[in-house]
Design goal:
Elements: E1 31-37, H1 41-52, E2 56-63, H2 70-83, E3 90-93, H3 107-110, E4 126-127, H4 132-142, E5 147-151, H5 156-164, E6 172-178, H6 193-197, H7 199-206, E7 212-215, H8 217-220, E8 224-226, H9 227-235, H10 239-259, E9 263-265, H11 267-273, E10 281-290, E11 300-303, H12 306-311, E12 318-324, H13 326-338
Parallel strand pairs: 1-2, 1-5, 2-3, 3-4, 5-6, 6-7, 7-12
Antiparallel strand pairs: 8-9, 10-11, 10-12
Helix pairs in contact: 1-11, 1-13, 4-5, 5-7, 9-10
């Protein structure tokens, strides 16, 4: 047997902390939120936070091909909404393929359905037949306040929305995206999955001028759930807790077999939790470029060094996550799931 792969460690570079620029919801003033996702075990947990937490007002859910094909991610999102008692939430299917390249999916991670390991309820949600771009546009236009987007998969739908409705960009308060990495990727040495699937879309969104937080692998690999957390979900005593515990058990098998880790990383939920807890994630201000070539396809090149940015005439326009309170994250996620019937 080969030596176990080391557990992912915090970033070794001493990044100077920066004040966060992402808004934080409060009970008195919840953030209007649209989730764009490709469920996915960790997407499902992200949706649970958005539905459970009073600091967020979930306006709608859109889906994209990524972890699985579009018909599967759309069905999975609807099943998660049904599980969470959010059957009135508008839900729409979006892009079935990336902007330019063939689709690459992650059945090796999430199973063929994209959400293996638990018996999910029949699909719910209020289906918006006109599709994801139309739903995002309608929700953003109708909102009296600027809307936060939380994309948890490839950025195809967001790029298509900005192409179709550039006039609505000013009504997007922030994008809190799970994707990218400063260090090593998880599909290749260079690239994290969500960027690798559609690097052209990621490049368009980063160049849009909309404020964005990149919640990448450097932090999400530290958002860990293992046997103890699974037991806490089982002990919650509700249906949602049991189903999410079963999903975790499946997810743990993948991480154990691929990395020899005794925990799994709940990547996508961090991008939503960041909008609830101002002290959960630490960020630096940086410039982010997306590599579109074949050798390092999807690499996110993060530059925070002030003098170098001046020399390159670049602006540190993105917040990039560099630290997380892992125990605080687990408590937030398990607490959210425990609130459901």
């Amino acid at each position: 047997m080969s030596a176990p792969r080391p557990n992912p460690l915090p970033l070794s570079t001493p990044y100077p902390p920066s004040p966060r620029r992402a808004p934080v919801g409060t009970v008195a003033k919840p953030l209007p939120l649209i989730i764009d996702c490709d469920p996915g075990h960790d997407d499902a947990m992200a949706i649970a936070i958005a539905v459970a937490r009073p600091e967020l007002k979930l306006l709608g859910v859109t889906t994209v091909a990524g972890n699985a094909t579009l018909p599967r991610t759309f069905e999975n999102a609807r099943r998660v909404l049904a599980l969470l008692g959010a059957g009135d939430t508008p839900v729409a299917a979006g892009a079935a393929v990336p902007l330019v390249r063939p689709l690459f999916t992650a059945a090796y991670v999430h199973g063929e359905s994209g959400l293996e390991g638990a018996e999910m309820p029949e699909p719910g949600g209020r289906v918006h037949e006109a599709g994801a771009v139309d739903l995002i546009a309608r929700l953003v236009e109708a909102s009296p306040e600027p809307v936060v987007l939380a994309p948890l998969g490839p950025l195809t739908n967001i790029a298509l929305f900005l192409r179709a409705h550039p006039e609505l960009a000013k009504k997007i308060a922030h994008i809190s995206w799970m994707g990218g990495a400063i260090g090593e990727g998880n599909v290749t040495a260079s690239a994290e999955f969500n960027v690798y699937v559609d690097p052209e879309a990621a490049a368009e969104v980063f160049s849009s001028g909309i404020p964005i937080t990149m919640v990448g692998l450097d932090v999400t690999h530290l958002a860990r759930m293992g046997a103890a957390e699974t037991a806490r979900l089982d002990a919650a005593g509700n249906r949602a807790g049991k189903i999410f515990a079963d999903l975790l058990r499946y997810f743990l098998i993948f991480h154990r077999e691929r990395y020899e880790w005794e925990f799994c990383a709940i990547h996508d939920a961090v991008a939503v939790a960041h909008l609830v807890d101002p002290d959960l994630v630490g960020v630096v201000h940086a410039a982010v470029d997306v590599e579109l070539g074949d050798l390092a396809r999807g690499r996110t090149i993060v530059d925070w060094f002030p003098q170098r940015l001046v020399e390159r005439s670049r602006s540190a326009s993105a917040d990039v996550a560099v630290s997380i309170d892992s125990a605080r994250f687990a408590d937030l996620l398990i607490g959210a799931i425990a609130t459901f019937d």
